[in-house]
Amino acid sequence: MPAPRDGGGRLTGVGWLLLAVLFAVPAYVVVVTPFALEWQALCAVVMIGAALLMRHAKSRQMLIALMVVSLLASSRYLYWRLTQTLPIGPQFDGWDLFLASGLVFAELYAYVILLFGFVQTAWPLGRKPVPLPEDESSWPTVDVFIPTYNEPLKVVRPTVLAALALDWPRDKLRIHVLDDGRREEFRTFCETVGVVHVTRADNKHAKAGNINAALKKTHGELIAIFDCDHIPTRSFLQFTVGTMMADPTVSLVQTPHHFFSPDPFERNLNTFRKVPNEGELFYGLIQDGNDFWDASFFCGSCAVLRRTALEQIGGIATETVTEDAHTSLRMHARGWTSAYINIPQAAGLATESLSAHVGQRIRWARGMAQIFRVDNPFLMKGLKAGQRICYANAMMHFFYGLPRLIFLTSPLGYLLLGADIIAAQGWMVLAYAAPHVLLATITNSRVQGRFRHSFWSEAYETVLALFILWPTLLAFINPRLGKFNVTAKGGIVNRDYFDKDIARPYYFLFLLNALGFAVGLVRFFTDAEHADTVLLNVGWTFYNLLIIGCALAVASERRQVRHSVRVRVRLPALLRRRGAQQTFEVSTLDVSDRGIALDLPEALNVEPGEPVQVVLIPQRSDVWLDGSVRRAGHGMLAMEIGEMNIEQESALVNALYGRADAWLQWRDMRAVDRPLLALREVARFGLLGGFKFTRWLGGEIVRLVSPRRQGTATQGDG
Amino acid sequence: MSGKQDKAFDDVGSLVNQLDLGGMRYREFGAARKPAEHQPAEHRPAPSAPDPSATAARPQAAEPQPAADTSRLRSVSAGSPLAFTFERLRRQSIASHVRSPVLVLDLPERHAVHADRLPRNARPLRELFAALDIDPQQGGG
């Protein structure tokens, strides 16, 4: 492993080479030595026991040792699979070999992703911000770009107002709204608040083209880019730019994308702020791990880029729909470095519905597959080995569609079609596979536990697998196929409903697995000779049913009527009746852009509808927000905010979203992963999803077979 | 209980402490700034080559806003010509007609002057512009 960039290395290149050779010989023996069943079972127990002990060690070195043991177990399993379990011979047919090859392909893919993932996350850099020079006149000029296309103004306003409050010398900061929608109301708003409204004649190359067009019209030394719904904290620039000033080779500083509203998984499964969401693994750990290898990459928003680096590569890359990663790949190939500061310094809205979420992920998957073809990190000149691995893993990760589908259907090949997908006895498969699967789970839990709970990857991937399968395949075949789609934000879900369109592929998978499970149970009691193999496949199918059930549970959209997101936050505030002299020191309980919940002072008697005024963070603001009481009692006053002028809106935005520490503690509030508890949780959601699906399916069947009721319902609806 | 809270509120300090960033020295710039106050003159497109698609902030009518806080106008150094002009604006109740903070002058004390819907022939205002060497047609300084 190369030395970390920040100077922690002790071994020279020769030292590492010697160590690798010393390790390679015993590792080879461990991987290739065949064992009989009982010895392999003993080997499995020893490996799993060692991993369970090692996982409690705190040191980074022990974690790497755990990764090595896990990789040895997985390598041993795969070696055994490739050399002893392929259905080749007269007793097998082509169908057996076809299905078995598919499974081996999926396992090899998972192995490579596991290996690359360990490399990526072995040593998260945990970089700290670099202080800026004392002399403010040496600070660089910054252009803030806020690209937008079709998002409503209400989504963009807070971002612009928060950008106006960025703590940076006023003569060195300029804010630009890059409006590809060329909307009059945006122009008026920009003029009102005093930012630059930038448009262009066409929408060529979507967001990348929009930014490139703005680059030609601006001159700031640095470019800070925020998606139009990513609201920066006031400290964003002072916590990021120092890194670029200290090291002139740094082309970009990326910070996490933080979301203060629940994504569809969190909302539909009610796991918001309890279970880490899908993005937290990437922004909490992987980007930090990439940073060790100088491979943290641009994510399209919440980042600062150096203009000279951008200009050197011809601006933002336009050949793919994930222009951000592609751009940083090219900068890295030109010798520029990058940095990741793992402090949330901006926050935004997560996708509202599962269909929007799926649409966004399809774009990411398609874009990464395009980059893999256009500028393959293994072949591209100028990259370091670590960068090749990190970029390759980021791209190859999105090829999980086909392997995931194979894992979800493989046992059915045996249970329903009678195919020998693994030419080995059930107990032997278990003895080899158990250490592989369990050690990978234990190690990943130890590495990722704060950012991704065990078994949730399967749930996240299963939901998206079938949707990204075709786009990635298509992009891999021809990178020109596919267009940029804009992710919808800020919407509402009017009612509870089962999104049958999104869930459709999973009906079939669920029903197929349910059928396989039933057939397997029958075979278990009737086919004593193969009981172990049948049991293994039944267990695997049951697990698949739970995971698919999870996907179905996510497709059960829960009602979301609130137009604005409440953020639970304790802020000091002053409260008074409108126009009254007497004020009360209070604290907020939660705040949104439409309402505030506050502690109700005992001495204040107010009635619903009564006009009141509030100053948020009076230590820093004297702007009174007007509103009226919605509810008062039980120590809590709920206030509905009235119409606001720009100054009031700005005060609210800065108090709610613009505080330097606004999002710091959100990650710390979640429980660290405990694999068995996580399995129980995923199983619970799987059963819930299965139940919801079955109930929905029952209703559909009743409706189909009962035309009279359907006709009545239609009349009633009309 | 009334009056302002005297408990310190320090979001930056909280961040610095929690992340153990002892070496960070934070500078405040934006907290006291109002929207429309930030555009640096030297950071604009050159006047000789205007970009038709990029429109910088200009004085312009906007949605109705509450009256400006005229108490700010009085806190300019007493006795200065500027203070005198401000005071005349205040006495003539011109400030009470103010609706939108679309023109903001870059004064040391960061006082806002609201120019929208101000009578264009307001003599004190013209004097103010002249004193600060600002062309009102070109937007805020």
UniProtKB/TrEMBL annotation, chain A:
Single biological process term from Gene Ontology: cellulose biosynthetic process
Cofactor(s) this protein cannot do without: Mg(2+)
Keyword field: c-di-GMP, Cell inner membrane, Cell membrane, Cellulose biosynthesis, Glycosyltransferase, Membrane, Transferase, Transmembrane, Transmembrane helix
Enzyme class at the top of the EC tree: transferase
InterPro entries: Cell_synth_A, Glyco_trans_2-like, Glycosyltr_2/OpgH_subfam, Nucleotide-diphossugar_trans, PilZ_domain
Signal peptide from the UniProt entry: none
GO MF, any single term: cyclic-di-GMP binding
Ranges for domain Glycosyltransferase 2-like: 144-313
Residue stretches spanning the membrane: 12-31, 37-54, 61-79, 99-119, 405-428, 459-477, 506-526, 538-556
Pfam hit, one: Glycos_transf_2
Catalytic reactions on record: [(1->4)-beta-D-glucosyl](n) + UDP-alpha-D-glucose = [(1->4)-beta-D-glucosyl](n+1) + UDP + H(+)
Membrane topology: Multi-pass membrane protein
SUPFAM superfamilies reported in the protein's UniProt record: Nucleotide-diphospho-sugar transferases, PilZ domain-like
Pathway(s) per entry: Glycan metabolism; bacterial cellulose biosynthesis
Family recorded in the similarity comment: Belongs to the glycosyltransferase 2 family.
Functional note: Catalytic subunit of cellulose synthase. It polymerizes uridine 5'-diphosphate glucose to cellulose.
Protein name: Cellulose synthase catalytic subunit [UDP-forming]
Protein's organism: Sinimarinibacterium flocculans
Classification of source organism: Bacteria, Pseudomonadati, Pseudomonadota, Gammaproteobacteria, Nevskiales
UniProtKB/TrEMBL annotation, chain B:
Comp. bias (Low complexity): 51-68
Highest taxon of source: Bacteria
Composition bias type Basic and acidic residues, residue spans: 30-45
Spans annotated as Disordered: 30-75
UniProt lineage: Bacteria, Pseudomonadati, Pseudomonadota, Gammaproteobacteria, Nevskiales
Organism: Sinimarinibacterium flocculans
Protein's UniProt name: Uncharacterized protein
